[in-house]
């Protein structure tokens, strides 16, 4: 596609977005008025669905399709990173041969701290996911904590141990299953905030692990070759 064609597509999309934004803005209630149509609808629905937290009810029930879009964006980003970096890795291994990496030389205090914080961080992530329906957030935040937690092993200087505890095929399958489960819950049920929160945590955590894994592998290959 030429540069001119890309600009035309961008202009067409921008005009459509501007039109939709203007139509939505013109129908907003006056600032400081007594009419709050959004709040008047969300709170009764949250109470009707017996959701302890209104924000979680909005994210995982009343606007589950919005959350589904965010899930698919994250999934597509992770898969794109995996596919692109996997191809680059294969090219470098063909040119230079496969490399084996042993534990890095780090300070003992850093190694002990990393291993000590690993179970604490994992428990924190599980707690955030499990209690997401009681407070704002949950699945997304807890998933990021869980996905990042196991990389404390890498920061402790032991990349082979990290490779053993995060098999890539398992996390690829976990991400796909979690995304599919969220779609099924969003289409079939209402008020399943706890279940939706759990599968969001699994999908986000798996996506974080996959993305970081491929970036780590690429960085190690580049450093080894140089």
Characterization of the model:
There is one protein chain. This protein is mostly helical. The chain has one domain (52-225). It has ten helices and no strands. The mean pLDDT is 79.
Q: Give the total of beta strands.
A: 0
Largest sheet: none
- Helix content estimate: over 70%
The count of helical stretches stands at 10
Low-confidence stretches: none
Distance between the termini: 36 Å
What series of H and E elements makes up the topology?
A: HHHHHHHHHH
What is the typical, i.e. mean, pLDDT? Answer: 79
Percent strand equals: under 5%
The number of domains is: 1
SS-based structural class? mainly alpha
Shape: globular
Give me the Rg, rounded. 22 Å
List the SSEs and their pairings:
Blueprint: H1 3-26, H2 37-48, H3 54-62, H4 64-96, H5 108-130, H6 139-149, H7 152-155, H8 159-165, H9 168-188, H10 193-225
């Amino acid at each position: 596609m030429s540069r001119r064609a890309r600009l035309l597509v961008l202009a067409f999309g921008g005009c459509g977005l501007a039109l939709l934004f203007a139509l939505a803005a013109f129908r907003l209630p006056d600032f400081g008025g007594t009419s709050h149509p959004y709040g008047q609808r969300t709170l009764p629905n949250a109470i009707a669905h017996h959701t302890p937290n209104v924000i979680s009810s909005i994210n995982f029930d009343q606007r589950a399709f919005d959350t589904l879009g965010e899930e698919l964006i994250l999934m597509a980003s992770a898969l794109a990173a995996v596919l692109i970096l996997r191809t680059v890795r294969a090219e470098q291994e063909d040119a230079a041969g496969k490399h084996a990496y042993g534990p890095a030389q780090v300070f003992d205090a850093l190694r002990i701290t990393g291993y000590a914080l690993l179970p604490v961080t994992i428990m924190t992530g599980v707690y955030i996911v499990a209690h997401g329906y009681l407070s704002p957030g949950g699945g997304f935040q807890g998933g990021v904590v869980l996905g990042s937690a196991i990389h404390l092993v890498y920061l402790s200087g032991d990349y082979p141990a990290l490779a053993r505890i995060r098999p890539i095929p398992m996390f690829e399958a976990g991400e796909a299953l979690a995304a599919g489960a969220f779609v099924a819950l969003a289409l079939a049920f209402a008020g399943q905030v706890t279940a939706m929160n759990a599968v969001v945590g699994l999908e986000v955590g798996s996506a974080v692990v996959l993305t970081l894994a491929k970036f780590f592998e690429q960085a190690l290959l580049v450093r080894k070759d140089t």
